[in-house]
């Protein structure tokens, strides 16, 4: 059974380091081999502040950007959110994207690769898990937290993981795969 994993870059601001971290994790997930890993950048969807006239649970989407986003979310069996921490919370771009659709998220697992300063984005990850559960997404305990992310960038802004990031990433992907297999049966 091939399972599709979306690795979602959650920050859309200029100068963000999320794409560098996400590229590393995407390559890492491909090498892990248990998922068909796809890199998704929220910036490319260019979602305005939620603008659908009907509640997302009805799935009567009016706008092309919503239909495109719904199709992307629906096509995944699991998610990894690569997320920074903004003021102890999630980036607004992620919260907006989560709110755009509902049923497309249901009964799928998700994990977090968070980054930031000394906390490694862990406060944002905790807040994001609360929102994920209301979408019937199962958040994993296993995570990758990258403290002082700028110290892990090389001269050309590529993320360079350490052993802790690699071992955490392996645990995250192993657990995410178990849940993705189990939850797929709930969606059939």
UniProtKB/TrEMBL annotation:
GO terms for cellular component: cytosol. Pfam families: FMN_red. Residues 4-148 form the NADPH-dependent FMN reductase-like domain. GO terms for molecular function: FMN binding; oxidoreductase activity. InterPro entries: Flavoprotein-like_sf, FMN_Rdtase-like_dom, NAD(P)H-dep_reductase. PANTHER family: CHROMATE REDUCTASE (PTHR30543), NAD(P)H-DEPENDENT FMN REDUCTASE LOT6 (PTHR30543:SF21). This is NAD(P)H-dependent FMN reductase. The lineage of its organism: Bacteria, Pseudomonadati, Pseudomonadota, Betaproteobacteria, Nitrosomonadales.
């Amino acid at each position: 059974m091939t399972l599709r994993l979306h690795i979602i870059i959650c920050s859309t601001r200029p100068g963000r380091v999320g794409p560098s971290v996400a590229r590393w994790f995407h390559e890492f997930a491909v090498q892990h081999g248990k998922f068909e890993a796809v890199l998704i950048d929220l910036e490319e969807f260019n979602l305005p502040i939620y603008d659908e006239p009907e509640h997302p649970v009805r799935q009567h989407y009016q706008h092309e950007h919503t239909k495109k986003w719904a199709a992307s979310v629906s096509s995944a069996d699991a998610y990894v959110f690569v997320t920074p921490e903004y003021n102890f919370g999630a980036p607004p771009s992620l919260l907006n994207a989560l709110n755009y659709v509902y049923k497309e998220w249901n009964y799928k697992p998700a994990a977090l690769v968070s980054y930031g300063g000394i906390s490694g984005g862990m406060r944002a990850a905790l807040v994001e898990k609360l929102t994920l559960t209301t979408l019937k997404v199962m958040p994993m305990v296993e995570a990758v937290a990258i403290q002082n992310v700028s110290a892990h960038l090389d001269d050309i802004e590529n993320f360079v993981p350490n052993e802790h990031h690699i071992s955490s990433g392996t645990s995250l992907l192993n657990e995410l795969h178990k849940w993705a297999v189990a939850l797929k049966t709930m969606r059939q």
